[in-house]
Write a structure and sequence with these properties.
This protein has helices spanning 11-23, 59-69, 83-88, 90-115, 151-170, 192-204, 226-239, 256-265, 294-300, 308-339; strands at 2-6, 28-33, 49-53, 73-76, 120-124, 173-179, 182-183, 211-214, 220-225, 245-248, 252-255, 273-276, 288-289. The chain is an alpha/beta fold. β1 (2-6), α1 and β2 (28-33) form a beta-alpha-beta unit.
Amino acid sequence: MRALITGITGFVGSHLAEYILENHMEVEVAGFVRWRSPKVNIEGVLDRVALYYGNLLDFPSVRSMLAEYKPDVIFHLAAQSYVDFSFLAPVETLATNTVGTCNVLEAVKQLKQSDSYDPVIHICSSSEVYGQVTEDEVPIKESNPLRPASPYAVSKVGEDMLALQYWSSWKIKTIRSRMFTHTGPRRGEVFVVSNFARQIAMIEAQLAEPVVKVGNLDSVRTFSDVRDAVRAYWLLVKSCPPGEVYNIGGVETMTVGQMLEQLLAMSTVTDIKIEVDQARLRPSDVTLQIPCVEKFYKATGWKPQIKFDKTLRDTLDYWRDYYRRRQKTEQHQRAESTVL
């Protein structure tokens, strides 16, 4: 069996590659990447994955890669995934997420028509498609209205609906996931849990004043661990029928402020202050995200296994290790310059 991961060098893609290689050794894993994509997240598996270079917005590179590798399963994870950046760069966000997805689906369609190629395709949508819900709409079901509140969310609605349309029109075997908040080690520093953990690690390393800058702390989120998320994605393509959509998410619900309190309790510094940074407040925000995941549980039996306090500690330890290594490198460079 062959699996292809678009966005393999990213946060979720790298964890998914590790999960498949560690738990399903009969599966070959390849990734579709841009030539400039950093490989740091997949350093541990580089010798066990094949990389194909191209760009989601370059249709010939997408089609030629699929024609050559012909994966049995495609995990389409590549995206511009930062909500705040989508307000600054809506066209890039829409192009990457919606047009890029269309290129993948269109390439599969053409190869199916010419060569009977017929893979399963996981289209990674997002809980952001639901937008701001009312209290009587939680927990949020797959049937809830879509009210995108950011260009990112709009792009994910487009991606989601394209997947449905390609199944309805041409029976391209798409399965859609709407993943709720998930985090863990290697999460980009712009995302809230990782950002707070990074700030705390910098304070502990005496690289910053004991102040954590925050945005809206009142938003309610149901958190899960990325390592549970990728296990769910594997079960999705193995157990779920094409054409369907599934909410996936954790079971631990809290405000962003309560999450920050848990992180601060894990710090070795006890006098850290909290300061609201106006630049971190979005033009429009989604403040209530609690998923109903009953449909996915019934289809796969999946349940989260990793407690959120472990997720938080592992994320904080990731950034602590990052700054320890950086300080050692700087000390080594200073020692070398002194000798010279």
